Amino acid sequence: VPDDQRPVVLWNTVFGDAWAFPALNSYTGELMRNGGGLIALAELANEDSTALLSFETVYEGALEADLWILNAFATPNLDALAAQDARYADFAAFQSGSVWNNDLIVNENGGTDFFERGAAFPQLILADIIAILHPELLPDHDFNFFRQLD
To answer: Per-residue pLDDT for the chain (150 aa), expressed as one digit of tens each?
Structure first.
C-alpha cells in the first residue's frame, strides 16, 4: 500500500495517566505497517520502546486519525467508550464510527480470544487489520478478533 493511501490509526486508549503508543518495531507496529496503516503519533515513539503520552498530547496530535483500534476490556459500544472519557467523542474516528475493538470473542470471565488464539495465529490478526484498514482488499473477510463498535 503506498504511503499516501495508508490510513492513520489511533491505537489503544488512555490507562491511568498515560496513553501507550507502540514502538515502530513492536508486534503492533509491524502489524500496522504490514496491514497498510500508519500509527498516529508514531514519530513520538522510538523504534524499540513504547511511548507513554498524556491524553492532551494524543488529543492534540491524533484528533483527526482515520481509524481507532482499541485494546479495551468492557467497551461494548461507542456510548460506553464516551462514558470512560467524554473527550473520546471529539476524535474524528469516533464521530465517523470507525472505532474497532479486539473483543469479538469473549469468554464468561471477560477474557478475549485475541490474547489466546491470536498469539498462536498472528496471520489471523493481520488479516483482520487489513480488512479494517483496506476493506476493498478483503471484501468477504470474516473477522476473527475485531468488531466495529456501534
So the answer is: 888 999 999 999 998 889 988 888 888 889 999 999 999 988 887 777 788 899 999 999 999 999 999 988 779 999 999 999 999 999 999 999 999 999 999 888 878 888 888 889 999 999 999 999 999 999 999 999 999 999
Residue with cell 489471523: 124
Cβ atoms of residues 105 and 112 within 8 Å:
yes
Angle between helices 122-133 and 27-35 (to 10 degrees): 50
Alpha carbon 68 to chain centroid, angstroms: 5
pTM comes to 0.91
* Residues 109, 150: Cα–Cα separation, whole Å: 23
Give the 3-state secondary structure of residue 31: helix
Neighbours of 145 (CB within 10 A): 23
Measured between alpha carbons, how far is 7 from 37 in angstroms, rounded to an integer? Answer: 5
Residue 141 DSSP one-character state: P
Q: Determine the Cα–Cα distance for residues 87 and 28; give it in Å rounded to an integer.
A: 25
Instruction: Return d(Cα 121, Cα 98) in angstroms, integer.
Output: 25
